[in-house]
Write a structure and sequence with these properties.
- Helix content is 38%, strand content 15%.
- The protein contains 16 helices and 14 strands.
- It folds into two domains: 215 residues, 3-Layer(aba) Sandwich (Rossmann fold); 178 residues, 3-Layer(aba) Sandwich (Rossmann fold).
- The longest helix is centred in the C-terminal third of the chain and has 26 residues.
Amino acid sequence: MTLALHGETILCVSPTPWASIWRNRQQIMSRLARQNTVFFVDPPRSSSSYPQPNFSEVSTNNNVEVLKAPFYSLPYGSRFLPKPVAGALVPAIDRWNAVALAATLRWPLRQPKSIDILWFYEPWASHLKGKLGESVVCYHVHDEVSEFTFNRHIARVLWDQELRALGQADLIFCSSEEQYRRRQPQFPEKTHLALNGVDFELYSSVWRDPSLPIPEDVRDLPRPIFGFYGELGLTFDPDLLLGVAQSWPEASFVLLGPDNLDRQYGGTPVLKGLRRQPNIHFRRQRPVSELPAYLKSFDAIFLPYRTDGHARYSQPLKMYEGLAAGKPIVATPLLAIQRHESLVYVAATSDECVRRLQEALQHPTDRRDKGIALARENDWEHRVAQIAQLVADLLAKRRVAAQDRR
């Protein structure tokens, strides 16, 4: 698909590394890079188990150059500091990190003013505006940081930082309807809904490719197999999963992805129970290209998300991915999930989840086909084309206006 945006240089400042789980930033930037040059800046620190590149080892992937933010970037540490101290430090740290990154970028970017589009996913990066000679600034809202449990004591400060970033941006993209509703009334002209999508060609290979093999590390597990893939962290509900696994000991529950549960729940009885539960199977993160093979092994996809805090504003990528794969999905009642209750099996408690998982094993063909059709409509190819058109239109207007002023 030919994009309206082409021949531009994009600097994307990401909250997660390129080599981590593929989220909307990798999906969008990998497609924009087909016709543009993309510099993708990894965060300075990451929980990812993958080795992270730095400026001395720039990696290239389909016209994407992956860079690492400077090691001397400062962490917030907000969860460990009293509210007055953290509230005063956050804005100062934001400004410092932006100055440090802008200075460090001069070498890999070849020259200080070579950026056409500044694209960021966290409010602190709005301080980069004007430092790289960009023509358009895009803020892609990916999460509600002020709603994180450990940020509650400085939620007002973080929301003020959010409002600053929204004001600085020329275009605002929201990855869920809940995020859009919080921002559009105040910034109606520049706020756009850009829901998470799906790599339909990749995930539909689950049913299109009969030769797709079942991975060895799940092949011999007792059936039925219910699978979760993604980060095991803040949005994951270990209590719910443990209750379901204990209620259905004959079933296998596969957790595929980076395990950050110790950071969130370390030492708690529920986590100890989760580790000891014999029918819960932890598997390490796999490259995105291998995920369809694992989805093929699942009898159903189980998404035990928390429904409080920042999670309630999210729109999980795994919903469209599971539908594209033709797999039944059982998920907790996030607002984005409830909108598709005719296609997704929604459950809130352990008992409800067990009942819905049993129903999912009898997934009717017409429901499966409707899910596949919905996923096809939300292919990343179409989504990125829409985003690119908005950016290209604004960029063209800016350049015409600049010429008129000469």
